[in-house]
Write a sequence for this structure.
């Protein structure tokens, strides 16, 4: 069962991030990494924010990190998520991709147990349409 209820809006891939979602569907967490300067970037975009190069590769990362920031949602922003409140939204700073911070959720944890600095590890969550979202659980 997905972290958020059926009917929750799902990502709508664009030409810039289609590859990211395709890797997620294979349960591979990969981020763009500049082939010229080596910097990771996310969300996906055509050119490197650091050096401007358009040469990129998709580097796989294991998916461990720390909670950089978080909030506990008490008021549903969409009717479909109303049964899930209170739920968390976190920003995870990944160990292996220093420039990457992704917005996600920590599953299987009480709201009062979320904290900045909490160690987390990747937990794939299948959502509607056969997509997989990178969520996290306590490490
Ligand atoms: Zn670069």
């Amino acid at each position: 069962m997905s972290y958020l209820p059926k009917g929750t809006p799902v990502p709508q891939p664009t030409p810039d991030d289609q590859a990211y979602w395709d890797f997620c569907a294979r349960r591979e967490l990969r981020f763009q990494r500049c082939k010229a300067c080596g910097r990771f970037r996310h969300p996906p975009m055509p050119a490197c924010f650091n050096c401007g190069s358009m040469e990129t590769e998709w580097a796989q990362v294991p998916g461990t990190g720390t909670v950089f920031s978080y909030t506990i949602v008490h008021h549903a922003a969409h009717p479909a998520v109303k049964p899930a409140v209170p739920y968390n939204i976190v920003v995870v700073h990944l160990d292996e991709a220093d420039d990457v911070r992704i917005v996600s959720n920590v599953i299987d944890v009480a709201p009062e147990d979320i904290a900045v600095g909490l160690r987390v590890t990747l937990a794939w969550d299948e959502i509607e349409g056969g997509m997989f979202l990178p969520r996290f659980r306590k490490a």
The radius of gyration is 15 Å. Residues 18-25 form the longest helix (8 residues).
